[in-house]
Design goal:
heterodimer; A: 398 residues; mainly alpha; globular; B: 77 residues
């Protein structure tokens, strides 16, 4: 998230200067924000080709939906196709022998896509309900430097309503609390997650050098646990930096984490981890698929429809996270985990009856056993994020 | 039958609870098993009962039963 040195310096500079520049309620506040967002993006862009791709990526959906007839299907298909091409999904395009000559990777593309889908899907509703729609607001929504690189995924309506909302002046205690949280977040990203990552890398690279299957398995388990904590500290730390700094600028960035490793099930985990992604997927992937399934092929078996929809939902989530096979496996494991977690609950509830089930759920040992199992499974699935575990398992050198 | 009464029947059927009584202010907070997973089931059951179709955005914008009734009445009209 903070790997780009030029970008990172500009980013810190913007975080500190934005509260001073954006706190005023002048009519030019949206233009000031636009300039700040442009500064960051121009600081990290590489070459004019990227600039052209970004410009097209931003302009096309805006003007197509603005001048369209309300049908967004073809535009969504176009966006998804271009996304897969620009991200270079080899396992999709490889067999087709498509050349990547024009696939200039653009920074923040994954998050752009989800925000744009939200904008495109909601455009008619926004227009009907009188929500402010201007190109400057749309640009700021996409490029908001607080959320550009690692989310959270805001919705256009919430973003624009919040941006123009009159807010009370923060008290000294509130300002102190924001700075305190940001400092903690900074430490989480740069110190804690940095140290954990160092050791996670070490254990991963050491895989294959230990004598005996047991030692090898143990080394993988240690790596997976370390990596699980790395992801948590790095990602939630990033949010702990941007959320309070945005608040100081009078901008609300939604919370994205709520003690995810205390979840008792996979369903609960996805309600506590990367919350804005889960909500986005629920609205735009799970619900439409589930609705279609139980209105048609799964009419007589709603549960089956739900499992299929959830499995597809999390497989898509995995694919969105990255382009190689590791992310596909990650998504499949999330989908499988969710279904197993739901089946466990459903079967046990049926077997025990309501009263016994409640007693079982309230038992401290059961609670902590569920938390531990969920956490271990999550760590296992996270080992596919950022590391070539598929390559490792298929015998490729680390 | 009034929209509210018909909708209440659908609620009782979907959430398998004959004690459910809905009002305009009723939200997902008030019904234990009304979550994002059962919400879609509710939408499909309502579509069937009232012979209407809801879009993805309409489904996600509903905040309470009052808005739901308003949307149904708008579609049925």
């Amino acid at each position: 998230m903070f790997e780009l040195s030029v970008g990172a310096s500009v980013f810190v500079l913007l975080l500190v200067s934005a509260p001073i520049l954006l706190r005023n309620r002048s009519q030019y506040r949206n233009y000031i924000f636009l300039i700040l967002n442009l500064v960051l993006y121009l600081g990290v862009i590489k070459g004019w080709q990227q600039g052209v791709v970004v410009a097209l990526w931003v302009l096309i959906p805006y003007f197509v939906v603005k001048n369209g007839n309300g049908r967004v299907g073809p535009l969504l298909f176009f966006l998804l196709f271009c996304f897969a091409y620009l991200m270079q999904y080899d396992w999709i395009f490889g067999p087709l022998h498509i050349l990547y000559a024009f696939a200039w990777k653009i920074l923040g593309l994954s998050y752009f896509l989800f925000r744009q889908i939200d904008f495109v899907m909601q455009y008619e509703y926004l227009k009907e309900t009188g929500v402010r729609i201007t190109f400057v607001d749309y640009f700021n929504y996409l490029f908001s430097f607080y959320t550009l690189l690692a989310g959270p995924i805001q919705r256009y309506e919430n973003f624009v309503t919040d941006f123009y909302e009159e807010k009370e002046t923060l008290t000294k205690a509130e300002i102190f609390s924001c700075l305190n949280r940001a400092l903690n977040g900074y430490l989480k990203v740069y110190v804690v997650s940095g140290i954990i990552k160092y050791y996670a890398d070490g254990w991963f690279q050491g895989f294959g050098t230990h004598a005996g299957v047991l030692k090898e398995a143990l080394s993988f388990v240690i790596f997976a646990f370390l990596n699980g904590w790395y992801i948590y500290f790095n990602f939630s730390g990033y949010c702990d930096v941007v959320i309070p700094f945005a608040k100081l600028s009078g901008i609300t960035v939604p919370e994205n984490f709520n003690h995810p490793y205390l979840s008792r099930s996979m369903v609960e985990f996805w309600n506590r981890h990367h919350i804005t992604l889960s909500e986005w997927l629920r609205d735009y992937v799970y619900s439409p698929i589930f609705k279609r399934l139980i209105s048609g092929p799964c009419r007589s078996n709603i549960r089956l429809g739900q499992y299929i929809a959830l499995f597809l939902n999390f497989t898509i989530a995995g694919i969105w996270h990255g382009t190689d096979m590791n992310y596909l496996v990650y998504g499949l494991l999330q989908g499988a985990g969710i279904i197993i977690s739901m089946l466990y609950k459903e079967i046990l509830k049926k077997k025990l009856g309501k009263q016994k089930w409640n007693a079982y759920q309230n038992h401290t040992v059961v609670k902590w056993a569920e938390i531990c199992c969920t956490w271990m499974y999550i760590c296992f699935t996270f080992s596919f994020v950022g590391y070539d575990v598929v390559g490792l398992l298929s015998g490729k050198a680390v | 039958m009034e929209t509210t009464e018909r909708l209440q029947e659908v609620f009782r059927d979907v959430f398998d609870d004959d004690a459910i009584v809905i009002s305009d202010e009723t939200t997902a907070e008030d019904i234990e098993s009304w979550d994002s997973l059962t919400h879609v089931q509710l939408i499909v059951a309502v579509e069937k009962e009232f012979s209407v179709k809801f879009s993805t955005v309409e489904v996600m914008k509903l905040k309470n039963v009052g808005e739901f009734i308003e949307l149904i009445n708008k579609k049925v009209r």
